[in-house]
Write a structure and sequence with these properties.
Helix 3 (about 140-160) runs parallel beside helix 5 and helix 14 (about 395-410) runs parallel beside helix 22 (about 645-660). About 30% of the residues lie in helices and about 20% in strands. Strand 1 (about 15) and strand 2 form a beta hairpin. The chain contains 22 helices and 28 strands. The strands form seven sheets. Strands 3-4-6-10-11-12-13-14 form an eight-stranded parallel β-barrel, surrounded by six helices. It is α/β, with parallel strands linked by helices. It starts with 13 loop residues before the first strand and ends in a 21-residue tail after the last helix. The longest helix has 21 residues, at about 140-160. The chain binds adenosine-5'-diphosphate and iron/sulfur cluster. Iron/sulfur cluster binds near residues 321, 325, 350 and 364. One of its GO terms (molecular function) is FMN binding. Pfam families: Oxidored_FMN (PF00724), OYE-like_second_a-b (PF22620), Pyr_redox_2 (PF07992).
Length: about 675
């Protein structure tokens, strides 16, 4: 198939200083938890994006010196020449597909604790560092500034040696020294680098000029700038200093990569923002520069992309998450297969890898991070090894992905779903406030399956063990999901809570199914991810008095890893949800509950008519036990094996499909990247 001519504009080349991007698809720098620790994984992942049609593929932020390092986050490094080959490998993978490779050298200053190198951080002023660690940064003196400029020059020269086409100067995300100098509330210097905006911009201007002098003959120099901190008059804003900075430096860089900061605003989730949420902030940039402009906004719709270019908002369509969820997004548009795009759902599971010090995972793309170590390609999969049939019971994320990937391999697949609709938990949860886009997990797979003659779907088909056996399939896969527990057992209570069997307890599943609680509601969050917060929001919006109790210090505690926690807590507080942190639920009585302080065990009573424990889920395994001794090939996948994230369920479905009929691997089932033992 050929692409729709209305998308032709997206495939025009764009000149960026001395280099030319082959099209307008631009993978902006993004963290991935691989970096210096898993460099082959990083190189292969970036190469797959180039193969998928991204005309520019960038690294994540790249530490340019051991005196500013982000341990325990795993970023790439250019501390000295010994790091060059590692990055050259990525460049080689990207160039192999005709794309440009870009690098984002970064000095984190007061954003890094230097826990590995033990060097003293430095920044514009003597202040505690941003991370909650007992570390202060020292104020940079003139010698420090000279050394700082030289670090950027050295990094630029090393980047060029590694083969990069685009080298960044990075003043974004409230995270780098170059941005810290711009910020009036961080930079209270009285020398020529502080005070007036012109003075605060001086260091950024010098570093851009230094970089251009060093490598600008063959490499494009891009500036990544946060044009709005979303703090109104308290910070840099696109109506004031953000605009002024771009005007002052307008023609200096070869490319403007503009966004909002901090990172939690730049990578906001779909629960709080829609596609294109940054456009209003960055649209002024093209009016004040003739240089190409790239911006982001979780763009997955080619029509939106076209309108951004045609309306003079952006020249290049920037993407981090859409390129993670679908590395082949550009190719699919090019080949007239727009409906095959696996759209990002805006959940930020990918981001959590950075906080957890682990390679990135993606809810939509189970191959993300597995390209090198398992050889998984997002679009290709080995054909079936035998003419066998597979029955999958359950059409949630696990069952759907197993059906899709097995279907792609050529197996004859039957998918039986008890409900009248596919999607399992994503179908249900996508009806909760803010989670509409999560439905894309099911939509993508449902459409793919609908195109496969070898995959049959039966809805309204809750199977018993006998019925499952009657299909006579060679393999039975159970993807039957899980139910929320109502006893209160979980992390904080190892035994059922006293009174849990009283009539006032309602399950999460009942609320999701539309049941309305009576009277004031108490939600007990011992789960810490999104569910309790979303339910509190829903029930409060429905007009209930809601009390939210959790043993942690803040609501939805794990969502710090998806950068949503502050927004969730703000929303609940603004809606009037009563929050009781640092308390365990220890007793459920008629008309009230007993809460126990997690430190002192002091008990207090809170009145409520209904209680919703959000503590744990029980895998639905009745079918498994009924079939265990009767089916010749029986496998549990996803939540019915062990409840987890949607990403984990999709991965489990994909993994089953990949491994069916393949020789069993003994030992570690993936390639490892071992640190080389130093020669003493
Ligand atoms: P996962 O996240 O592991 O995919 P879900 O809970 O999202 O799990 O999906 C499980 C799906 O399995 C649900 O849609 C549910 O209706 C379906 N299901 C559970 N038991 C049966 C059964 N015996 N027969 C058919 N479908 C079932
Ligand atoms: Fe998008 Fe979620 Fe995948 Fe991140 S993990 S790329 S937010 S679908």
């Amino acid at each position: 198939m050929r692409r729709d001519p209305r998308f032709d504009i997206l495939f025009e080349p764009v000149r960026i200083g001395p280099v030319t991007a082959p099209n307008r698809f631009y993978q902006v720098p993004h963290c991935n938890g691989m970096g210096h620790q898993y460099p082959s994984s990083m190189a292969e992942m970036r190469g797959v994006k180039a193969e998928g049609g991204w005309g520019v593929v960038n690294t994540e932020e790249c530490e340019i010196t051991h005196t500013s390092e982000l341990t325990s986050a795993i970023e790439c490094r250019l501390w000295d020449d010994s790091d060059i080959p590692v990055l050259a490998k990525m460049v080689e993978r990207v160039h192999a597909h005709g794309s440009l490779a870009g690098i984002e050298p970064a000095h984190l200053g007061a954003g890094a604790a230097n826990t590995y190198s033990r060097e003293i951080p430095m920044g514009p002023a003597a202040r505690p560092i941003d991370l909650h660690e007992p570390v202060h940064a020292r104020a940079m003196d003139k010698a420090d500034i000279k050394a700082f400029r030289q670090m950027h020059v050295d990094a630029a020269i090393r980047s060029k040696k590694a083969g990069f086409d685009i080298v960044y100067v990075y003043a974004g995300h409230d995270m780098t020294t170059l941005m810290h100098f711009l910020q009036a509330d961080r930079n209270d210097r009285s020398d020529e680098y502080g005070g007036s905006l012109e003075n605060r911009v001086r260091l950024l201007r010098e570093v851009i000029e230094d970089t251009k002098d060093a490598i600008g003959d063959t490499c494009a120099v891009a500036v990544r700038l946060a044009v709005d901190e979303m703090l109104g008059a308290r910070g840099i804003s696109c109506d004031a200093e953000g605009r002024d900075i771009v005007e002052m430096l307008a023609e200096l860089p070869d490319l403007w990569d503009v966004n909002v900061s901090g990172w939690e605003n730049d990578s906001a989730t779909s629960r709080f923002t829609d596609e294109g949420y940054q456009t209003d902030y960055v649209s002024f940039v093209k009016q004040v520069t003739t240089k190409p402009v790239v911006g982001v906004g979780r763009f997955t719709s080619p029509d939106t992309m076209v309108s951004l270019v045609k309306n003079g908002v952006l020249d290049l369509i920037g993407a981090a998450r859409p390129s993670i969820a679908d590395p082949f997004l550009p190719k699919k548009i090019d080949e007239g297969r727009v409906e095959d795009i696996r759209e990002c759902i805006g959940c930020n599971i990918c981001v959590s890898g950075d906080f957890l010090g682990a390679p990135m995972r993606c809810t939509q793309n189970p191959t993300m991070g597995e390209e090198w170590r398992k050889g998984w390609h997002p679009e290709r999969i080995a054909p079936k090894t035998a003419d066998e049939t597979v029955l999958i019971v359950g059409g949630g994320p696990a069952g759907l992905e197993a059906a899709r990937a097995l279907g792609q391999r050529g197996y004859d697949v039957t998918l039986a779903e008890g409900r009248g609709v596919l999607g399992g938990r994503v179908h249900i949860e996508s009806q909760l406030p803010g989670l509409t886009q999560w439905r894309r997990v099911a939509d993508y797979r449902e459409y793919q399956i609908s195109q496969m003659a070898n995959v049959a779907v039966y809805l309204n088909s809750p199977l018993s063990a006998d019925q499952a056996l009657e299909f006579g399939a060679d393999h039975i896969v159970l993807a039957t999901g899980s139910d929320w527990d109502t006893t209160g057992i979980g992390r904080s209570n190892r035994r059922a809570i006293d009174g849990h069997d009283a009539g006032s307890v309602l399950s999460v599943d009942a609320i999701c199914a539309g049941q309305s609680p009576t009277g004031p509601v108490l939600i007990f969050d011992d789960d810490y991810y999104y569910m309790a917060g979303v339910l509190a929001e829903k029930l409060r919006a429905d007009g209930h008095d809601v009390t939210y109790v959790t043993p942690t210090a803040d609501v939805s505690h794990w969502t710090h890893n998806t950068m949503e926690q502050a927004r969730i807590q703000t929303r609940l507080m603004e809606m009037g949800v009563e929050i009781v942190p640092l308390h365990n639920l220890t007793g459920i009585r008629s008309g009230h509950v007993e809460l126990s302080c997690v430190y002192t065990d002091v008990v207090k009573k809170v009145d409520c008519a209904s209680v919703i424990p959000v503590t744990m889920r029980n895998p639905k395994q009745d079918l498994f036990w009924a079939l265990r001794d009767r089916a010749s090939s029986l496998t549990r996948i996803g939540d019915c094996d062990a409840p987890g994230t949607i990403a984990a369920a999709v991965y489990a479905g994909h993994r089953f499909a990949r491994e069916l009929g393949e020789p069993e691997v003994s030992g570690v089932p993936f390639k490892r990247e071992l640190p080389a033992l130093a020669v003493d």
